[in-house]
Description:
Blueprint: E1 2-7, H1 12-23, E2 28-32, H2 38-41, E3 46-49, H3 55-64, E4 66-72, H4 78-83, H5 85-110, E5 115-121, H6 148-166, E6 177-183, E7 185-187, H7 200-209, E8 214-216, E9 223-228, H8 229-241, E10 251-253, E11 257-260, H9 261-271, E12 277-279, H10 283-290, H11 299-305, H12 313-329
Parallel strand pairs: 1-2, 1-4, 2-3, 4-5, 5-6, 6-10, 7-9, 8-12
Antiparallel strand pairs: 9-11
Helix pairs in contact: 1-8, 3-5, 5-6, 7-9
The chain binds nicotinamide-adenine-dinucleotide.
Amino acid sequence: MTQILVTGANGEIGHALIRKLASEGASIVALDLHDIDATLSGFCAESYRGDVRDAEVLGEIGRHHRFSAIYHMASLLSTSGERDPELAHEVNVNGSFNIMKLARAQSGLRGERTKLIFTSSIAVYGLRAGDLRTRPLTEREFLTPCTMYGINKLYVEQMGRYFSEYYKIREGEVPIDFRCLRFPGLISSETLPSGGTTDYGPEMLHAAAQGKPYRCFVRESTRLPFMVMDDAVRALTRLAGAPRSALRHQVYNVTSFSVTAGEIKALIETSFPQADIQFEVSANRQAIVDSWPENVDDSPARAEWGWAPEYSFERAFRDLLIPKVMARYS
Ligand SMILES: NC(=O)c1ccc[n+]([C@@H]2O[C@H](COP(=O)([O-])OP(=O)(O)OC[C@H]3O[C@@H](n4cnc5c(N)ncnc54)[C@H](O)[C@@H]3O)[C@@H](O)[C@H]2O)c1
């Protein structure tokens, strides 16, 4: 029986994705650096504690399973990557290279292209002072990232494209089927982010729901694209399910709404009037955010595999996030 491997299973996206895949009847193998969360293990056929940098562990997993798809999400995020660029490179690049080797081996063993679905980020963009941040950027512009995380993501995008489309394969070898989403900041009602530079959106919400003060590390006027986790997971499974013949690209932008930190604060305050949210800018993190676009153009995803977010800004907070975080912390 073919299975689906999810790396970084304990992460924010992993939690939501595993539940969604399990609800669709998939047989899931989970991999994370730490023991798989007890809340997830019931949804997984098997789980492994292991490091994507460890090629032996991945080889062992590959010997025991046949994967039709691998969702590769194990990663160090942007702020963590700036704290330790060498570790970020090891995990985000070398670890991804190992996962690509696993996908190639699986394609060969199965005689069919194994899908490798990779979660990239708007961190691949790198705007400089004076560049216009307001225009929605296509997948091919301003690819001059300013963080180790963004550089790592961009390289893995290129590596995936190479092994999927260009690598001169040996007689009988089957290429991988690489598919990649560039996500904006993600907001979940279930899990709290750590180590990302778009974390201020979800952190504001979770702090307000718990009655805790929050000091936002970017300016009130900072505008970035965001998406709720439900839409992010829907995008991942929809891209994975699209027929290969419909896809003309390997890397797709997806986005839902583009809002300022001040607009997020104002919407949260309509439900949590006592919320104590103030702005104390971190120069380093503001500089990272200032290198990212205020919006991205996701028209190829819409045209080629029918991407469309279900949640606008207001709907996301009023109908989904606020009721769920209220229930979670009440
Ligand atoms: N959350 C976002 O806003 C966002 C936005 C854009 C892209 N992404 C990307 O989506 C993916 C998942 O993001 P997330 O928010 O779930 O991240 P997360 O930090 O919540 O989870 C990452 C998981 O990877 C695991 N991990 C880290 N190093 C590992 C290693 N060496 N071997 C095995 N596992 C390891 C961690 O234990 C963690 O469970 C990442 O690749 C991230 O770059 C996330």
